[in-house]
Amino acid sequence: MTDFEVIIGLEIHAQMSTKVKLFAPVNNDSFGKEANTNVSEICMGLPGVLPVPNILAIEKGAKAALALNCTVANYSKFDRKNYFYPDLPFGYQITQFDEPISLEGYVDILIDGERKRIGITRLHLENDAGKLTHTGNDTLLDYNRAGTPLMEIVSDPDLRSSKEAREYAETVQKILRYVGSSDCDMEKGMMRFDASVSIRPRGEENLNPRAEIKNLNSFRALESAIEYEIKRQKKLWEAGEPLTAEETVGWDDEKQVTRRLRAKESAADYRYFPEPDIPPIVLTDEQIQKWKDEIPELPMQKYERFIADFSLNEMEARFYSEDIKLADFFEEVVKETNAKSANSFIGTILIKRLRDAGKSITESPVSAKQIIELIKLVEAGTISNNIAKSDLFDEMMNSSKDPKAIVEEKGWAQVSDESAIEDLCKKAIEANPSAVADIAAGKGKAMGSLVGFVMKESKGQANPKMVNDILQKLLL
Fold it and tell me: What is the assigned CATH class of domain 418-475?
């Protein structure tokens, strides 16, 4: 059986997070709105209208390109991509062809703990089409999305598996969110993928005809569609019927199969020519540098710093670096406490409770300052770690009150009075003669029974370390 190498390239279409559309002063947020209510004469391509570029969209596109290590051009232009389809009001798409806003970048991804560099051919700007909904023999048209500003990010054919393709897509998503260029909300259709897949016998260098899988709208669909397409092409090859021409296929998510749609179009099919109604985009070196200077520390850099500076393991560093808001929250706590305690309260307690409530870190009823105060209360011995992570945290989540105020209100301050704890320890010894006998016989685990008795009697407020020390003194 032939040993095949898989060649994958990805096109990522990400909706830019601007208030208005790319060429019209119309609300860019159409999610949940009634069909065909979020449109204008420009969106609909009515005769005599003139598109005017959204300057903020150009800035967000340029910043995304810089974050993806692309070279942003001083001169770029818009072009008309001609094709006729019901969801395209103009009869053409305004995009960028031979002189896009950026070229030649790369993204580093992590595969099994190892870095791999994926080349980026280009990032260009374009407006989105409308949306078609097929219902039996009818097709419904919604033009709310028409004119939405998009970035199309085209990778080099450097991906070699569905796992790598997903990791690359997730990495790009994080970067776009970090720089504020796109929210990349998959549930709202803000990010979609076209995946080109081909195979070749391992060791060969030529690129064979590819199948392009269109409009994948989730990471799961991306991975599943590529896996299916790889298997399909291998079967064709082994049967002596490999792809002889490039083709476009669609993904049937319900049946988990790809289906051929048409032969793959070429640039000539689209009859590109410069958009005559929009002047070229001219950017100075100073403007490009200013945008570059505004780019924050990116996920991979943050991941590596968290490991080096905070001694987090790879899983923890990845967890905190995936979301810039979570990373900022974590670092705010670490500045005044320590990474181990911050991770213990944020990663294992706060995030779990937020997820159970369907909330993100930006919706947390508990602030970073309150987490800092909570950790300091534990470190000072004012409260026990157990109470901090259970009853007290519940109260903080429900009321958003400061932990110190709750402790005073509930009377949860930890008992550290030596004489009071000694009295409780003596009571524990008197009430548990069998445990005392076991300890005398060298069965150290029995000490837990006595500690548990004291903690129960003190309603969890006795200082556990003092309890252990005093019991040891009384018994050994």
Answer: mainly alpha
